[in-house]
Design brief:
The complex is a heterodimer of chains A (365) and B (531).
Chain A (H helix, E strand, L loop, with lengths): L7 E12 L2 E12 L3 E5 L6 H9 L6 E6 L2 E5 L11 E4 L11 H6 L14 H13 L15 H13 L5 E5 L7 H18 L2 E6 L2 H7 L2 E6 L2 E6 L1 H6 L4 H7 L4 E8 L1 E4 L2 E4 L5 E8 L5 E17 L3 E8 L4 E7 L9 E6 L5 E2 L15
Parallel strand pairs in A: 3-8, 3-9, 6-7, 7-8
Antiparallel strand pairs in A: 1-2, 1-4, 4-5, 9-10, 11-12, 11-14, 12-13, 14-19, 15-16, 15-18, 16-17
Helix pairs in contact in A: 4-5
Chain B lengths: L16 H22 L5 H9 L1 H32 L5 H9 L6 H12 L4 H6 L13 H26 L2 H9 L4 H30 L2 H5 L5 H11 L4 H32 L16 H33 L7 H32 L2 H15 L2 H15 L7 H26 L4 H7 L4 H30 L2 H6 L7 H9 L5 H24 L2 H4 L2
Helix pairs in contact in B: 1-12, 1-14, 1-15, 1-16, 2-12, 3-4, 3-7, 3-9, 4-22, 5-7, 5-13, 7-9, 8-9, 9-12, 11-12, 12-16, 13-22, 14-15, 14-17, 14-19, 14-21, 15-17, 16-17, 17-19, 18-19, 19-22, 21-22
Classes of the chains: A alpha+beta (365), B mainly alpha (531).
Chain lengths: 365, 531
């Protein structure tokens, strides 16, 4: 999945940003490769938008540094102003210029001269036309932002920021103002747009499926620090800490005894993702990792709730252990039936201090 | 996101600061100079004023302010509620009509009150055949109350309208769903939510009553302003006028501080509320009494002055008296109004952009500096500029430039408020977006911020024009000799027994001011007229 080359486009090192006495970003470090799409995932107030704005040049760093193409653009002492960074930004509320048409909004970054030339170059004209077509906005070029739907406004905002071919594009919760159905569609469209343009991008979101579904790599953030930055797959199946696990998906922990490359649990002997653990520990078993399995342990379905594509079950094993299972709704397990279950993936293990036992579901938000 | 709406850390372009700071200093200069002038003769004039006139002036001024606030509340609260929340017939027209006294200067209103109700006035003329020889004395507090209530209640009305419109109607619905009747829901939920707005609006009216000069002077009620004017015109030594001016200034600034405090509380309470259109409350059989009440208000505050002036004008024409030549004054008033409005709006741009789009500590300081000058009555600013002109700006003194300078100091805050409102409504990230697209700060200002300020600028221009046309004290004190304006002519002829001469210029002022006032009220620029 990763298309990143080795050459690092953006380097953020031990960055700190303060708002008065509040440390919003507290030593964040992350890097981005050419053509890569990175998602910053975290709960509200974790500092992800502040980090993004510091990269854009709208917030000053109090410590650490930001490098673009190997050149220092931000530190406590140095600051390259936003308009000279060639870093585009898509704002949460889009920030479309209300007095300019769709076409004029998109062309804004291509206009030259201090007052913005009224006449655009031939090349700029072609670029605008190309983008309008790419975004499927051909017929709407002379509309004003307030005459557009939310999804259309969103596309204009993305196209506008792409027009001057920025080195890097930043997107601040770009889908949070759309209703869920449209959100999914726009995520696909914007993903295609970004990849069609081959632009490197950082996307800020608090929506797990958005981050995991759109990005090449996901950085999970909490309290101003980046906990882990990995591919969606590695993050979901191999979180490095209990916090990273909770931010990237639903969590449920089982007490276990490490025995080399397996862990002995009430659910049986589970393969460990990282072998070599010995003694008591806790293993992460996300509800969707428990699947029907002919030679699995028998359990009785105690509760059952269809939530669309997934059906959520609460099952009880003969030992009395209850766990939560998220199964495809196509797998019909009725209330009171006995099913046989096993764990399909190698599970990550944590120290007994880090992870809470039991199976309560913690949400990343 | 916690910091989504914070504009902290936004660096305002440096070139905006120079004009903004200049405007701030300009606003403070007269205040500073008045303070200097009042202490030039030592503490002797202070002791003199404190012993002889401070106490009665304070009592009379505050008494008037309190009575006017009470009367204004009785008009503005029902007026705002009826036009915002109920199914009153012709709601929109009433909403505009109730704001229209903004077009009537206080001295014209005072004139109309005296001409209608005073000795040998209209009412007595009509009652004479019935054997009524004398009407109760109208001069003094009763006439001052009537005059100032009629011209100042719109400020409270506009604040209350805005607050009622911003208040979430669903909180009242919530109270009713919990079993409260309509009246109890209003009293227990809506009214408390309105309290800060009521406080802020009332203080605004009090400030108006304390600052007004023309109204109290025409009905011969001596408050601080009239005392300052009498000292200024009658005695050779102007220290006492300066001392009284400083005292009035301190009083006015105190009221403004209280008002800002109340305002900050109601804005933080109401701004976030969702503004859903609510179902109008049916008035039922109260429709016509309510309409009647509003009709009486409009009749007294608008129809009466216009009618009285027309009647005197008619009598003057019938009697063949020489009407004053108003062509020159009309031209002067138009010139001053248009030039003053243009200059003031342009000068208010930089501080408005700084405070609405960038914020921060320094932008607040500049804004507060202009508002201190705004708290001071026009008469005090004019007096300060007279002293300033004589001492430091001799070439400017008694030129129209000095008069324009006074208008700028007086009305920059009005223009600033009108410019700010629409700028604040725009997405705070528009300038960031322009920067992220590679635009330099100056280019961002020219292509994004200034185009957005256009609707606010037209509102500011109209508002300042309207206010200059009505303005009296600065015009009286600072006009070059022989340079007569409509306000000046109305004032100087109103002391004559026969009001026929004052009627024409008075009507012209109302005519010039009515259209802009109606436009502002109709467009619903409540936030811009508020100041």
């Amino acid at each position: 999945m990763t298309r990143a080359s080795n050459a690092s486009l953006l380097e953020v090192r031990a960055l700190e940003v303060h708002y008065g006495a509040v440390r919003a970003v507290a030593g964040a470090a992350v890097s981005l490769g050419e053509g890569e799409i990175l998602a910053l995932l975290g709960p509200s107030g974790c500092g992800k938008t502040t980090l993004l704005r510091a990269i854009a040049g709208f917030e000053r760093a109090s410590a650490g540094e930001i490098l673009l193409d190997g050149t220092l653009i931000e530190s406590a002492a140095a600051h390259r102003p936003a308009h000279r960074r060639s870093i585009g930004m898509v704002f949460q509320e889009y920030a479309l210029f209300p007095h300019r048409t769709v076409e004029q909004n998109i062309a804004y970054g291509l206009e030259q001269g201090p007052l913005g030339a009224v006449r655009r170059s031939q090349k700029a004209q072609e670029r605008v036309a190309q983008l309008l077509q790419l975004g499927g906005l051909d017929g709407l070029a002379s509309r004003y932002p307030h005459q557009l739907s939310g999804g259309q406004q969103q596309r204009v905002a993305v196209l506008r920021s792409l027009a001057p071919r920025p080195r890097l594009l930043l997107l601040d919760e770009p889908f949070s103002n759309l209703d869920p159905a449209l959100r999914h569609e726009m995520r696909e469209q914007v993903g295609l747009l970004l990849r069609a343009e081959g632009v490197s991008a950082i996307l800020v979101t608090h929506d797990r499926s958005e981050a995991l579904g759109l990005a090449d790599r996901v950085a999970v953030m909490r309290a101003g620090v980046i906990l882990q930055c990995d591919t969606p797959e590695r993050l979901y199946f191999g979180p490095v800490s209990a916090d990273a696990a909770a931010l990237s998906g639903e969590v449920q922990y089982l007490d276990a005894e490490g025995e080399g490359d397996i862990a002995v649990t009430a659910l049986g002997r589970l393969r460990l993702r990282e072998p070599g653990r010995a003694g008591p520990c806790r293993v992460l078993v996300r509800p969707d990792w428990i699947v029907p399995c002919v030679d699995g342990l028998a359990a009785m379905v105690m509760e059952r709730r269809v939530e669309g594509a997934l059906t959520r079950l609460r099952v009880e094993f003969e030992t009395g252990l209850q766990v939560s299972v998220a199964a495809p709704s196509g797998w019909l397990a009725g209330l009171g039936e006995t099913v046989r279950l096993g764990v399909a993936v190698a599970v990550p293990a944590f120290g007994t201090e880090d992870a809470s036992p039991g199976s309560e579901i913690r949400d990343g938000d | 996101m916690t910091f989504r709406f914070g504009r902290r850390g936004r660096q305002a372009p440096g070139f905006l600061w120079i004009p903004a700071v200049a405007v701030g200093l300009l606003s403070l200069a007269p205040v500073y100079y008045l303070a200097v002038r009042s202490t030039e003769r030592g503490w002797e004039p202070w002791r003199d004023v404190a012993e002889r006139s401070l106490w009665p002036l304070l009592v009379d001024s505050l008494q008037l302010a309190v009575v006017v606030v009470a009367c204004s509340l009785a008009i503005a609260l029902p007026g705002a509620w009826l036009t915002v929340r109920t199914d009153l017939p012709w709601r929109r027209a009433w909403a505009v009509a109730l704001a229209l006294p903004l077009a009537i200067p206080s001295y014209v209103m005072g004139l109309a009150v005296v001409a209608a109700l005073g000795p040998r006035g209209l009412l007595q003329d009509w009652l004479q055949p019935l054997g009524v020889e004398r009407l109760p004395e109208i001069y003094g507090l009763p006439a001052a109350t009537l005059t100032l209530t009629a011209v100042s209640y719109p400020y409270l009305y506009i604040v209350l309208r805005a607050a009622l419109r911003a208040a979430d109607p669903s909180i009242e619905e919530a109270a009713r769903s919990l079993g409260s009747g309509r009246l109890r829901a209003f009293a227990s939920v809506t009214l408390p939510a309105l309290m800060p707005a009521i406080a802020a609006g009332s203080l605004l009216v009090a400030l108006y009553a304390l600052s007004d000069f023309g109204g109290v002077a025409t009905v011969r009620y001596t408050t601080f302003t009239r005392a300052v004017f009498l000292e200024y015109t009658s005695s050779f030594d102007r220290s006492r006028a300066a001392v009284l001016g400083v005292m009035l200034g301190v009083l006015a600034v105190t009221v403004l501080m209280l008002e800002l405090l109340a305002r900050s509380r109601y804005q933080s309470r109401l701004r976030s509320a969702r503004t859903a259109p609510s179902t109008p409350i049916p008035l039922g059989r109260w429709r016509w009494p309510a309409t009647g009440y509003l009709a009486i208000i409009v009749l007294v505050s608008e129809v009466l002055p216009v009618f009285v002036l027309c009647w005197w004008l008619g009598r003057g024409i019938a009697a063949g008296t020489d009407l004053p030549d108003v062509r020159g004054p009309l031209e002067h008033t138009l010139t001053l109004g248009l030039a003053g409005a243009a200059i003031t709006t342009v000068l208010a741009l930089a501080p408005a952009v700084l405070s609405a789009r960038y914020g921060g500590f320094m932008a607040r300081v500049v804004e507060q500096a202009t508002f201190i000058a705004h708290a001071l009555p026009g008469l005090v600013i004019a007096l300060a500029l007279v002293f300033f002109g004589i001492a430091y700006a001799r070439p400017l003194y008694q030129t129209t430039w000095m008069l324009l300078l006074a208008y700028v100091v007086l009305f920059v805050p009005n223009a600033l408020a009108a410019l700010r409102a629409p700028l604040l409504r725009q997405d705070p990230h528009l300038e960031d977006a322009a920067a992220s697209l590679g635009r330099r700060p100056f280019s961002t200002l020219a292509t994004v911020t200034l185009p957005l300020a256009r609707p606010g600028a037209s509102a500011a221009f109209v508002l300042v024009f309207l206010t200059i046309v009505k303005e009296l004290p600065a015009t009286l004190l600072l006009s070059p000799p022989g340079y007569r304006t409509l306000a000046g002519v109305t004032w100087s002829t109103s002391s004559e027994a026969f009001l026929g001469s004052a009627a024409l210029p008075g009507l012209l002022i109302i005519g010039l001011a009515a259209l802009p006032a109606a436009v502002l009220a109709w467009r619903g620029d409540d936030e811009s007229i508020e100041r």
